[in-house]
Amino acid sequence: MKKVLQSRYKRFVFAFVSILFIFLFMVISIIVSQHREMREEIESDARHELDLIGSFAREALIMKDYAAVEQFLVQWAEEHDEILEIKATAPNNFVLAHYKRFRPAISSIDLYKDITFENRKLITLEMTKDLTPAQRNMLKLSLPLILGSIFLTVVIGLLLWYAVRKLALIPMEQEILMREQAERKFRLLLESAPDAMIFVDKEGKILMINAQTELLFGYNRRELEGKEIETLIPERLREKHKKFREKYIFKPEARPLGLDMELFGLTKKGSEFPADISLSPIETDEGLFTLAAVRDVTERKLTEMKIRRSYQFQEAISSILSNSLKPIPLEKQLQNVLDTILSIPGLSLESMGCIYLVEEDDQLLTMKAQRGLPEEIKTQCARVHFSHCLCGQAASSREIIFSDCTDSLHTDHPAYGNEKPHSHYCVPVTAGDKTLGVINLVVSKGHKRSIDEEEMLKSVANTIAGIIEHSRTDMDRQKLQERLAHAEKLSALGRFTANVAHDIRTPLTLIGGFARRLNRDFAEGTKHKEYLNIIINEVNRLENILKNVLTYSGHASLNRQLNDLNNIIQHSLEAFQEKFDSQAIQIQKRLNEIPPVILDKDQFIEVISNLFSNAMDSMPSGGTLSVLTEKNTVQDKEYAVVNVSDTGEGMSDDQLKMIFEPFYSTKIIGHGTGLGLPISRKIIEDHGGFISVDSKIGKGSTFRLYIPVNGKPDNSR
Amino acid sequence: MKIVCNISKDYREHIELVGKDKVHIAYVGPASYVEITRKYGEKPILARLEINGTPMFQGVFITRKDSSITTLRDLKGKTFAFGDPESTMSHVVPLYMMNKAGISKEDLANHEFLKSHQNVALGVLMGDFDAGAVKEEIFHQYRDRGLRDVAWTPKISEHLFIAQSSLPEETVNKLRTALLNLKNESNAQSIMSSIKENMTALVSARDEDYDNLRLILTSVEKLASEE
Fold this sequence. Notes:
The complex is a heterodimer of chains A (717) and B (227).
Chain A: H1 2-8, H2 10-62, H3 66-79, E1 83-89, E2 95-100, E3 108-117, E4 120-130, H4 132-192, E5 196-201, E6 206-209, H5 211-217, H6 221-224, H7 235-250, E7 263-266, E8 272-284, E9 287-296, H8 298-324, H9 330-342, E10 352-358, E11 364-371, H10 375-380, E12 383-385, H11 389-397, E13 401-403, E14 422-431, E15 434-444, H12 451-521, H13 527-552, E16 560-563, H14 565-582, E17 585-591, E18 597-600, H15 601-618, E19 623-634, E20 637-646, H16 653-658, H17 676-686, E21 690-696, E22 700-708
Parallel strand pairs in A: 17-19
Antiparallel strand pairs in A: 1-2, 1-4, 3-4, 5-6, 5-9, 7-8, 8-9, 10-11, 10-15, 11-12, 13-14, 14-15, 16-18, 19-20, 20-22, 21-22
Helix pairs in contact in A: 2-3, 2-4, 8-9, 8-12, 9-12, 12-13, 13-17, 14-15, 15-17
Chain B: H1 11-19, E1 25-28, H2 30-40, E2 45-51, E3 56-57, E4 59-64, E5 79-82, H3 88-100, E6 110-113, H4 117-126, E7 131-135, H5 136-143, E8 147-152, E9 156-157, E10 160-163, H6 169-180, H7 188-195, E11 199-203, H8 211-226
Parallel strand pairs in B: 5-6, 5-7
Antiparallel strand pairs in B: 1-10, 2-10, 2-11, 3-9, 4-7, 4-8
Helix pairs in contact in B: 1-2, 2-8, 3-8
């Protein structure tokens, strides 16, 4: 600990020692300069001395008292121990006087002087003075001074250090220790915080961050510490933030999390995230600091958005549902639905979209409702075949198709306007394994498809499916009711007809009997005979009609026995052979092996006869009649199936709807009873089977008779 | 006994002091002696100095070793240094010799009187003068520093001690004996060297020993009066 602290004071100690050294240096330099001054003084003294000697020599030489000069110089030199050498040289190099002391000297000065008189050089004086004693004296004087000053410096230094340590350093160390502990605690606290914590000074410099911050922003702390806080803020918000910060200094206030201020953070990689930031001002002796807690609220925002979205969709769905209860036609219903979907915020571009439905043709989508589509699209896309275009693909794949405008999937519809880049959502509306339709939404470019949104769109689609189903069921029920009413009507009519027929039958039988008896009495070719024949024929016809009416109205009795169908068909064909030949109708038969079925042979013959007769009527100028028998399984039930196809005129859909209605006939009035097919269907249905029919105008018709194989024989009669 | 030592300011004062018998014993130069006897009559001679074993001394004309002067005649047009005007060997005798050689002071480019023999020697060495005149011992003393002799003067008797003419004969004799015996004293060397360097003894002298000087001085005086 001590070492650490001491190393911390390195700078302080260094400064302290430096000051002491400077002090020492000053003292020593003063001594040295004193030294130099003394030396200079000695030198100047020596020069004065030489001047003095010179002036004497000059006077003597002017007086031509040479000996005096010599004597004086030598004597002077002898008397002055510090003079090492003295020499007087005449201009002709004669040495007038020379005195030399042979003694080693540490330091000496050489002086030189020319003595002149009236511009004539009299003599040159040279003197060497020994400075050794002076030097020694000076040294003797300054050494203790220097040593003393060093000693003094050391003592002052030690005393000062002791004082500083006692008075300042030790308390400071303690304070630093406390501060360090506090800082460590603070750091620990900071690190343990669940949010990203950033400690900032009033200049906005980041002082400290925790591991969460590193994680959140992708920087490591060394990169961030010392940087401006704006580093972590998107470029566009930096200026604003700086201004906020400058204001904040004057009025620092704590700000909790969750104020939802639309703040953003910027990571090292440059991506932004919505952030929630709390601020806690911390006032210290060193000024204002701020502790900011940053929380990435991307998830929360997303969740919020999802919830909002889900709420919007829910709202839409509930609005759709409540609308669906209104008794309005499906197409209007669908328009309402589409408008509701388009009103979901942020989904559609300029409320553009449409709804397709699958109608009779189960491979074709028909536009039933649209909003905002350009005219061209309305016509171009009024009908879309399955697998064609995005909507067709959605219909056939029964999957939501999302296509961005940049996507290769995106089919180019110039009419949408290329200046308006857009994307599509094609949502199939399905029920069970059936595609009921497709919702097409035009959404803005760059719209991000999300699973959640698709899920919600699916639920909207399901709602729509429900409405369509509901509407269709409603229609079916209505039809059923109509038919029920019709049947009831027929039933009443049947009973009435049966009664009438019953009542008519007896007189008719009488008319027929008596007419035949009369017929025997008239010779051939007579008018009476001719009239009687007409009466007999018409009575036969009436009897036939009566029989049919009775059969249809359920008043005929069945006599069901095990029969070979192929056999019956073979007989029927033979019976009709003559007629077929006369109408140039070719017969094509393929009678496969089928198990015997239980049926009323006479009634079945009538059904076959009806079909043959109809086929003949549809082929007035010849054709081919194909008869095929086979075994088939429909909905786990075995049926013996009889196919009767012609190559006749065929029937339209509208006609097809009507052929099983009683008294509907394509035949000329009076030619048919209009009861052939209704009776046929009734007979087959009475046997537990059913009739189906396919027909195409110009191609011909195919009737299929399905008779259950495991029927029960009628033993009651 | 109280001894009073009197040192005169210059030759002239000394001559007058001694000549008028103001002192009992006097130490005088040879020229001064000749002057005193000529002006004030004879004085009893006590003893003369012996330097390096001889009581005679001579003067010498000096020049620098590198000088072109070889004879006295070469002095013509040159600068010349004399010692004191009263000095025997640095003025009186050399002047006499120059005259004999036919060179007058006017023939010299310049001449100066320096105070001492040393100054003359040094003045020549310094180059301030082309030549000069000094006594023999000074020449020897400075020769090695670059002097050369040009001509020598006749030998002259040395400095001498004389007594008051009025002093009794007995005292004079006693004094003479004492001085002549000085060399035998234990402290003779220190006493002698204090009188003059290289002095070896005091020896007896007569008035005639100074006659050659007397002659020279007379001739020089005549020269001066002619001028």
